[in-house]
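Weekly puzzle thread! Below is a chain. First person to post its structure in token form gets bragging rights.
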Amino acid sequence: MFKSLKLLASSVLLSLSFVIPAANAETVRLAITDLVGLEELQREFGAFRDKLSEVTGYDIEFTPVTNRTAAVEALRFKQVDFVLTGPAEYVVMQNRADAKVVVGFSRPDYFPVIVTMADSGIANVKDLVGKRVAMGSVGSTSRHLGPIQALADAGITPMDDLELVHTKVPVLWESLKRGDVAAVGMNHTEFRRLRTQEMENGGHQPGAFRVIARGPDLPNDLLMAGSHVSDEMISRLRDGFVNHSDELINSIVHGGGTDVDKYTGMRFISNIKDSDYNYVRSMYATIGYPEYSDFVGD
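Winning reply:
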């Protein structure tokens, strides 16, 4: 009897040794740009947060930010520890917040496209001069800056030659079909998804749309750490991504989110160079923000 009780007590103590550290785990604050509100963060990245907490031992909690600028300022003023963000925000964070890279999120087919209706008579970018073109939200790498640069690479000055409007992607898609705009800019993944939905819902066939310009593959999305975050904490998170890569990817792609297309087939990348983002810096020069346009060497 006494021996059984002793074994039971030992088992309880052993169990507590695993529970107590979790209860006392250090809290890490994580923000994700493009997502506003705790409900949206939980829906899209709740499973990822839980898995990252599990593999690192940190108590990771979401910190909502209202927009991209707010994310930069939150990192700068130590109101958040880590931010998952896009290439455009990375350039600003490097300039204003002295942020540090933890890991890159490499997304397949991540490039901007300029789309017109095939029967519009618009065959190339120069045919758009003087016309209205719709883009996604201001500051988005693949819905605004990337499409603008693709137009500039094709030989026009988009800020002067076009009437640019910004709206949500579903709205600009409908505007294109109605003829309210001559072309739209978005990323390829969104275009492919919308074109497929159009066909499945009995609307336009894929051949009704024409891509008249494409940009190059864009640099990786990034998990960034604030300058106040210790090297030890960064190393621990980075090790979690390296050692549990497939589990973390599955938690994003199969975690119940509604906007996971962009991460399907992704990989985590650790060898990130600042010079990889020089093309994004050229985008800032194109839209008139030279303070974010200084190239860096390899």
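Puzzle host: Confirmed. Bonus trivia for everyone else. The longest strand covers residues 100-106.
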